[in-house]
């Protein structure tokens, strides 16, 4: 088992404004004092190279833009089965890679628990490494949500070890 049993994987295209929200969140989390069980990876636009980060994990938290009929900055927490149920047009530009990545995670022994945080973007067509004002204002709030998820995961893992 990997000594860093919890992986936070921020993915997205940093060149397309809010499409890079997962990367912005990963970069912010990398600057925080997180428990030693946690590794944060800036996954960029994804790809099979990310698979190497999955082995030996108990939990993987993926953060990405999700195109939903919702107010920009809305955050959705869901499990991998929800990805297969959505239409191809509803996820970010690297959705196919995400589906393949999730399928690979299921083949690991033991398979990690995977949670996806999707953030509704405002701007994804504008070439910019900066988030829209709306998402920039919500960035700290979104990072705090993920930090709470991490705290719960670490506490759960410690409880399981002591039982």
How many helices? The count is 4
Helix-residue proportion: 25-40%
Distance between the termini: 18 Å
Return the CATH architecture. Answer: 3-Layer(aba) Sandwich
Describe what this molecule looks like in 3D.
There is one protein chain. This protein has 163 residues and is an alpha/beta fold. The protein has one domain: HybD-like (Rossmann fold, 3-Layer(aba) Sandwich), CATH 3.40.50. The protein has helices at 21-30, 81-85, 95-107, 133-162; strands at 6-11, 38-44, 59-65, 75-78, 113-119. Strands 2-1-3-5-4 form a five-stranded mixed beta sheet. The chain starts with 5 loop residues before the first strand and ends with a helix. The model is unreliable at 87-96 (pLDDT under 50).
